[in-house]
Amino acid sequence: MNKKSYELNLSDTHYVTPHGLDSDEHFTTALDLARLTDYALNNETFAKIVKTKTYTILINNQPKSISNTNELLGNFEGIYGVKTGFTNGANRCLVTSCKRDNLDYICIVLGCDTKKDRTRDSIKLLDYSFKNFSVVDFKKIATSRFDEWNESHNNSFFINKGKSQNLNLYLDESDFPFENIALKNSEKDSIDIEIDFNFSFEAPICEKTKIGNLHLYVNEKKYYSIDIFNKNEITRKSIIDYILHILMNYCSFFDTL
């Protein structure tokens, strides 16, 4: 369990028993529980179990109905899990997953005195989140701003000794750490794009050479950077190219006389 905890980057979690009863060396945090829940919900069997409100099993060939102890399941829009908890040391705890449209939350409430408290606090947190956050397509914003910048700067490059001055630029879309993120509604107007790029180059330039970066900021805080590459190869001028260039200019001069 501790090995898996390390693999999942649960840096503030440590197990000493499989059952989770109180122990000084058995601990976790709300953040680690959220990370663990996010990982566990990728398991289809787990996800199916935690969203099941009631289930009938057989005991000595007699049917018995068992109920999920998650008091929000079926009573709050979008709830699809996950887990209640109680020990004398931890008090009443509730890990909740809730999805509406394209917003998907994991809510962690710990240390409540009563079930009523953990229910109330979970609802307050989820209501606040759905009211104050919305999904922003960072990838769409970044690519759109980059295309605008690229179109307005496509004649601004100088490639010393290059046969061509035309760079065909693109963003490495595989480098996007995420496409969509839940952002505060008040922060959506603070999204900014910064292009870090050198306009002067020395030929030759190989195909798929990294030649710049796009930085995405929210409230002046950098969220991530994406590499900018060129699609086309720019070869270096040879002596013959220079001779041909001189001859063309020479002929052009006499044509104007």
Short structural summary:
The protein is α+β, with helices and mostly antiparallel strands.
Could you state the order of secondary-structure elements as H and E?
Answer: HHHEEEEEHEHEEEEEEEH
CATH class of the largest domain: Alpha Beta
Helical proportion?
25-40%
Q: Determine the strand fraction and express it as a percent band.
A: 25-35%
Shape: elongated
- Number of spatially distinct domains: 2
CATH homologous superfamily heading of the largest domain: DD-peptidase/beta-lactamase superfamily
Structure classification: alpha+beta
Looking at CATH, which topology of the largest domain would you report?
Beta-lactamase
Distance between the termini: 87 Å
The main sheet comes to:
4 strands, antiparallel
Radius of gyration: 29 Å
Poorly predicted regions are none
From the structure above, extract its key features.
Peptidoglycan synthesis regulatory factor (PBP3), Domain 2, 29% helix, alpha+beta, 257 residues, 3-stranded antiparallel sheet, Beta-lactamase, elongated
Write up this protein:
- The mean pLDDT is 89.
- The protein has helices spanning 2-7, 30-40, 44-50, 115-132, 138-153, 239-255; strands at 54-59, 62-67, 79-87, 91-100, 103-112, 133-137, 158-160, 169-171, 180-184, 191-197, 200-202, 210-218, 221-230.
- The chain is built from six helices and 13 strands.
- By secondary structure, it is of the alpha+beta class.
- It is elongated.
- The strands form five sheets. Strands 8-13-12-10 form a four-stranded antiparallel sheet, covered by helices on one side.
